[in-house]
């Protein structure tokens, strides 16, 4: 719930909330080793050497790198799916326009499907859902393409080309829907956050008795962690969040097909 609330915010709020959270944990880490109530325990821990810090920091950086790669790969997959769906629909429309006899019902169904995706389905994808109107239009398109009379009137080669384009659209649509249904990996984000806090604790630990250097080191790490994790967070969900993949390619295709 907390992770989803954070990821649903605008870009400034994502940065701001994470900054607040890590600033509080950084201050708590510094206070833990510099407070007068913990001096006795701190004195016993003063032998920890500086290289100890790298053990926790490396784990944090590795997991953050994996999370960033995963997020960017989903964005690339989403873009490819939208472009492939656009290309398949345009191919369907162009072949039906160039072939004989006239295939106006197929072209009309392609436009209805695009309109349903743009108007009804795209907003629902933020919640991982599909629109019944888009599903119905897509099924209607298959019904038009599967008519046996199409082979006799347009030729087998044209019919096979139309069906191949429809299959391309179906695969792309399936990829798009699957990507929209993938919600955030909460254990991954909690693990990253815990490792960030442990890195702050490690920095404070290796600077025992030096509050100003400790504060500087923790502050620099906190700023770096906030920038990195926030950039990953805004790309975490390809069809949701403040930088969700826009339907630009489909919108441009719809506008172009309406002119024909």
Automatic annotation (TrEMBL):
Keywords: Membrane, Transmembrane, Transmembrane helix. It holds the Pfam family Bestrophin-like. This is Uncharacterized protein DUF4239. It comes from Enterovirga rhinocerotis. The lineage of its organism: Bacteria, Pseudomonadati, Pseudomonadota, Alphaproteobacteria, Hyphomicrobiales. The chain crosses the membrane at residues 49-68, 189-208, 214-234. The keyword Membrane applies.
């Amino acid at each position: 719930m907390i992770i989803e609330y954070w990821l649903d915010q605008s870009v400034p709020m994502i940065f701001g909330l994470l900054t607040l959270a890590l600033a509080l944990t950084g201050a708590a880490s510094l206070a833990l080793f510099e407070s007068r109530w913990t001096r006795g325990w701190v004195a016993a821990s003063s032998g920890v050497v500086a290289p100890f810090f790298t053990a926790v920091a490396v784990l944090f950086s590795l997991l953050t790198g994996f999370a960033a790669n995963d997020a960017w790969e989903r964005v690339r997959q989403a873009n490819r799916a939208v472009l492939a769906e656009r290309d398949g629909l345009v191919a369907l429309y162009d072949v039906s326009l160039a072939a004989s006899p006239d295939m106006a019902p197929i072209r009309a169904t392609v436009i209805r499907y695009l309109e349903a995706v743009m108007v009804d389905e795209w907003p629902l994808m933020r919640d991982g859902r599909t629109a019944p109107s888009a599903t119905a239009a897509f099924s209607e398109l298959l019904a038009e393409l599967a008519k046996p009379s199409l082979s006799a009137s347009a030729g087998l080669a044209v019919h096979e080309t139309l069906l191949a384009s429809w299959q391309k659209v179906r695969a792309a649509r399936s990829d798009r829907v699957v990507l929209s249904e993938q919600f955030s990996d909460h254990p991954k984000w909690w693990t990253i956050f815990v490792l960030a806090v442990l890195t702050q604790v490690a920095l404070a630990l290796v600077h025992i008795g030096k509050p100003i250097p400790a504060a500087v080191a923790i502050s620099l790490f906190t700023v770096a962690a906030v920038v990195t994790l926030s950039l990953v967070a805004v790309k975490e969900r390809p069809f949701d969040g403040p930088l969700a993949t826009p339907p630009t390619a489909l919108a441009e295709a719809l506008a172009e097909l309406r002119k024909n």
